[in-house]
Amino acid sequence: MHALDAYELYRFFHIGDDETAALRGVSLQVCAGEIVAVTGPSGSGKSTLLACLTGLDEPDGGHVEVAGVRLTRRSQANRARLRRANFGILLQSGNLFPHLTVEQNVRLQMQLAGKPDEKRIAPLLDSVGLVARARALPTELSGGETARAGLAVALACDPPILVADEPTAEVDRDTELRLIAQFEARRAAGLATLLATHSKALAQRADRIVRLKDGRVENG
Ligand code: ADP
Questions:
Q1: How many Å lie between the centroid of ligand 1 and the Cα of residue 209?
Q2: pLDDT digits (tens, 9 = 90+) for 54-113
Q3: What residue numbers bound the domain in which 158 lies?
């Protein structure tokens, strides 16, 4: 069974009389222990795909299954429950509460998932290179630090599926290698990882690359 299965996803946006087809029949599978990279030019549909895969957005056609359970066309509450049980999510919209420090954000995520583990917080922040920024508020972080803090939150409970949009944007080479090591540790632990990325270094370490263009899979 796949960790994540998407069948023929379609998503249209309407502004006035204009229609944009952000996804035009995208199918994609991610297995446990696999890293899949989604690449493609800006506007090709990556963010829309990630939002539909995690149930944060509803596709207009097609459906998504998480560990064999249908996620699409369920109530908000059911989608939220499935999301909490299965996903760690870092999208462009961010996932940090602005009034909490980095460390408090990670702690809250663990508490919300019912998995508080004070001992894991420091090693987790270390693994994303943010120990020194543990007490910083999100507004005090650089772009790269924000992405890494968001990643720490998304990774906080070792989610069965990590979905991250540009997790290595604006980070230096050393940090990028450190984050890649994180993703590889997830692979070794049999967890699924799906990353939208422009980074060649990151895409090269993926088990599979799904290239999007104009809302379609180019290499499908
Ligand atoms: P990417 O993440 O690859 O840059 P997106 O998924 O953000 O691509 O966007 C795909 C297409 O859908 C683009 O043409 C974009 O303008 C359009 N789009 C995305 N979200 C919206 C929205 N909320 N309203 C209108 N158009 C949107």
A1: 20
A2: 999 999 999 999 999 999 999 999 999 999 899 999 988 888 999 999 999 999 999 988
A3: 4-217
Q: What are the helix (H) ranges across 26-137?
A: 46-53, 76-86, 102-112, 118-127
Residue carrying the six token digits 């939220």 = 80
Tens of pLDDT, residue by residue over 155-179, are 998 999 999 999 988 888 888 888 8
Q: How far apart are CA 32 and CA 3, in angstroms?
A: 6
Which amino acid residue places its CA nearest to atom 11 of ligand 1? Answer: 22
Extract the tokens encoding 117: 């583990």
For the complex shown, is ipTM > 0.90? Answer: yes
**Adjacent-strand bridge partners of 28:** 6
For the chain, how many structural domains are there in total?
1
CATH number for the domain spanning 147: value is: 3.40.50.300
**Which protein residue's CA is at the shortest distance from atom 24 of ligand 1?**
13
Distance 150 CA to ligand 1 centre (A): 22
